[in-house]
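User: structure tokens for Nucleoside diphosphate kinase, please.
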Amino acid sequence: MEKTFLMVKPDGVQRNLIGEIVTRFEKKGFSLAGAKLMQISDELAQNHYGEHKERPFFGELVDFITSGPVFAMVWEGENVIATARNMMGKTNPADAASGTIRGDYAVQVGQNIIHGSDSPESAEREIALFFNEEELVSYEKTISKWI
Ligand code: ABT
Ligand code: MG
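Assistant: Done. Predicted tokens:
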């Protein structure tokens, strides 16, 4: 079953949106495979956002993602990588449709509430970066046949 890495960013944690965000993915029908509240180190932030190293906003991005605790999660389900990105909405909340997480709760591109892996390769890389094998649980849900 496909897995993705999702993370409530420091703005989402500060604004008490962890529960709301978890609820959306639960109600959709995906399964939580792992989760933890954590403080990201500078080293982990630079590694996670490595693809943006040369971009002008890289410094601010690292400062923001390390500015307070984040809620890191692994979610499992059919097409969960692309579907979660749709549920999050466009990167810039100004372009994100109403009904998406960023469309409903965020205003600025630099504080857009949630991160989600953008491809199977990113998902594999990011899950390994944030979680140990023993922190993840794979299990059968009896409700699965109804989804
Ligand atoms: P992430 O889930 O944070 O990776 O966002 P997403 O994949 O939707 O968008 P990308 B392109 O990966 O942006 C990464 C972070 O960089 C911020 N950003 C992006 C800016 O601040 N200015 C910009 O012009 C662009 C393109 C938004 C993303 N994170 N935050 N916070
Ligand atoms: Mg990204």
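User: Anything notable?

Assistant: Helices lie at 10-14, 18-28, 42-48, 58-65, 80-88, 101-105, 120-130.
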